[in-house]
Amino acid sequence: MAGISGGGDHLRKKATGVRTWLQLDSTGESNIVEAGKHGVMRRTGLSGLDLRILDPFLSYPATLIGRERAIIVHLEHIKAIVTAHEVLLLNSREPSVAPFVEELRHRIMQHHQATEALSREEESLLTRGQNGDNTGPPLLLPFEFVVLEACLDAACGYLDEEATALEEEAYPALDEVTSKINTLNLERVHRIKNRLAQLFQRVQKLRDELERLLNNDEYMAKMYLTNKDAVERRLRNSSLSSIKHEIVQRVLDERHGMVSGETLAQDRGNSSRFSVDFHPAEQHHQKRAIRTASSLSRGSQFAIHTSSRRYMIGKSKHLGVKDVEIIVEAYFVRVDATLSGLSTALKSLPRNTQGFLGLSVLGEYVDDTEDYINIMLDDTQNRMMQKAVLFMTAGVVLMAFTTVTGVFSMNIHDFSLFQKNDPPNYYFILFCGGGTACSIVLYLIAISWYKHLGLM
């Protein structure tokens, strides 16, 4: 019964689109979250089309997209949603993703410890600043950029491991097919070449995605989630404080007007009549002040969102996108090394790019091996055709000799040449020997002629 209920829960989750996500917050703590499509949309502010990029049943190329509240990361085996305070990772239990999860948790914990140390240092610097010390604390990358760098590093490392494994398998196979050409070795090299072509396509897609980010500052500016969150909080606090001040000021003004009217009425001697009409008027003014405050609070939400977006766009234009540009450009150079075919640059590049340059060298080695095999096959085919010409010529000569001997072996009684039997069959043997010698001479003449024409 437990197995049946477990299977029913799995089918129900699959039908409703519920998936298991690994949540890592800014402190490095991890939790397993089961959320459906709409739950993730409310949590991250993404649309349904954005979540299709992370669908494991759909094939999408390498993608890095920044939205209002999250960054979508789809790089090789890594499918994640990064916000300013947490990261949601899909398929975290797969063997290829498990090492990345540990590395990501380690980097997040290091960033959290560095952030706490920086806050304590800022407090001490504020105290020292009062004594005339103007030195500032070092700057740290935002949380989302720490996760982004870990994702890019893991994706490049994953491609590097595949390149190394392909090299270790390819070179022995190419050497073997060079020394011994057969169907099994040729099929093995063909499979290796297909894998090499697929790997180049994946690397090319990752390179194109990084190049798209580098060519557009607005795309990179959308990835500053921490700054956008801080700006929205600051604008929200300032707006709420101004709204509260305005409400208090309006209520005080209304009450001040009420008190002045009541004092004036008492001076005229109509205090009883005015005191009866005063309370409904005061309630009306208070309700109007509350309605005004609520309308201001509702309008402030849209104003905060709009002003924060305008502020971030203007800030990105003035201050640039240096942090994310440095990260993306570093890994763009690393990925671009996969597509360079300069084997001489292998010794001068850093060690982590040698595996990628090995792919280019391996590609050239595969092409050279194919050319060598084609040359060997052409040479073998030429030699076989030469032998076929020799055998066909020998066949023609032999057929002519057989025809001649067949004609002279006939028993013709009226022909005087065959009636002499001293020695017996003398002329027959003479014709056979002469025909054989003539056939050999004709065959040698044919071979000499073939060599003269350049066919041999």
UniProtKB/TrEMBL annotation:
Q: List GO molecular-function terms, semicolon-separated.
A: magnesium ion transmembrane transporter activity
Major subcellular location class: membrane
Q: Which UniProt keywords apply?
A: Coiled coil, Ion transport, Magnesium, Membrane, Transmembrane, Transmembrane helix, Transport
Tell where it localizes. Answer: Membrane
Instruction: Identify the CDD domains for this entry.
Output: Mrs2_Mfm1p-like
Stated membrane topology is: Multi-pass membrane protein
One Pfam family named in its UniProt record: MRS2-like
Which InterPro entries does the UniProt entry name for this protein?
Answer: MRS2-like (IPR039204)
Q: Which GO terms describe its cellular component?
A: membrane
Q: Which residues cross the membrane?
A: 388-408, 428-450
What sections of the sequence does the record tag as coiled-coil?
189-216
Q: What protein family does this chain belong to?
A: Belongs to the CorA metal ion transporter (MIT) (TC 1.A.35.5) family.
Q: What does this protein do?
A: Magnesium transporter that may mediate the influx of magnesium.
Query: What is the protein's name according to its record?
Result: Magnesium transporter
